[in-house]
Amino acid sequence: MEGVPNVTRADALAAVRNPLAFIADRWTPAPRTVQRAALSALVMSVLIVVTGGAVRLTGSGLGCPTWPKCTEDSLTATSEMGFHGVIEFGNRMLTYVLCAAVGWAIIAARSQKPCRRGLTRLGWAQFWVVMSNAVLGGIVVLVGLNPYTVAAHFVATSALIAVATVMWQRTREGDAAPEPLVGGAVRQLVWCLVGASVLLILVGTVVTGAGPHAGDSSEVERMPLDWETVSKAHAVLAWIVVSLTFALWFVLKAVDAPKAPLHRTRELFVVLLCQGVVGYVQYFTDLPEILVGLHMLGSALMWIWVLRVVLSLRERPAAGEADAVPPAQEYLSTSPSIAGPR
């Protein structure tokens, strides 16, 4: 029998020492493959919000009463734990699917030619956010669904969605320096929109922490705030975000902005209107679980579209287009004065 060739041994050692480099040396994904990998990570980030909401809304937050095991004696849910154990353990298992999607995005980004280190860093950023949020989720269980840790858990997931959205956008762009498509005054208005949206999400977690859906049928600590007062403050912030979005759309139309910012702003406005309808209906119908779940999904979609509006305000030409005159410069040189300085 012939011995194993030295090159095969070297390949095996290389694969063990640096599997990402080993794969990258032997595989070059198409740009569309990289885009789909990044999109899959984003979709899973949204799905984990929905399933996490299902855990809370079905009262299954302590379906697995400990962590990292499901019980003191079992890693998985047992038949004695019933429906709640299945829901909570299923959500934990979905974290592994999310990790697989993020890992696929990292491998695809690392293997792209030429190498785009920025994309790979965004993939790894998602990985570490997922890991830290998994630990935080364990702490949530160990402290008996303390509402402050539950709120932090959701905020961390929103951070994951933000990184995943940026990575997805970057897979569809080049690596040239970003060129603004609108003036400074418009960009300032958009950052006001982002700030209001962040505040809206944070106050939304307070509404959850003070509201009736504690996540378990047992007595669970709630935030010592009047739920209806916080809900009204949340509604006021929502109207501020809607108003800023409409103002942004009006300004973009006035300065004859490129299509991308206009389209993203219009889409955000539609998402906000749908989210508002769900929010008011759930408020006046005593918070039925299905509507609360839809509202959580809407929150994730709203955050994605706010970020898409921000990312639509600039463009990054592909490598072959970098030497050409960027359309952004042509637009800014001819746009009305309201666009402001670059």
Beta-strand content bin = under 5%
Count of folded domains: 2
What quaternary form is this?
single chain
Q: Can you summarize the main beta sheet?
A: 2 strands, antiparallel
H/E element order = HHHHHHEHHHHEH
Distance between the termini: 71 Å
Shape: flat
Number of helices: 11
Structural class: mainly alpha
Quantity of strands, as a count: 2
Helix content: over 70%
**Looking across the biggest beta sheet, what order are the strands in?**
1-2
Residue runs with pLDDT of under 50 for 5 or more positions: 1-6, 319-327, 329-334, 336-342
Cα gyration radius (Å): 23 Å
The overall pLDDT average reads 85
Verbal overview:
The chain is mostly helical and 342 residues long. The chain has two domains: 28-172, no CATH class; 178-342, no CATH class. 70% of the residues lie in helices and 1% in strands. It has helices at 6-17, 19-26, 31-57, 82-111, 117-142, 147-171, 184-210, 227-254, 259-284, 289-311, 327-334; strands at 179-180, 314-315. It is flat and about 55 Å long. The N and C termini lie far apart (71 Å).
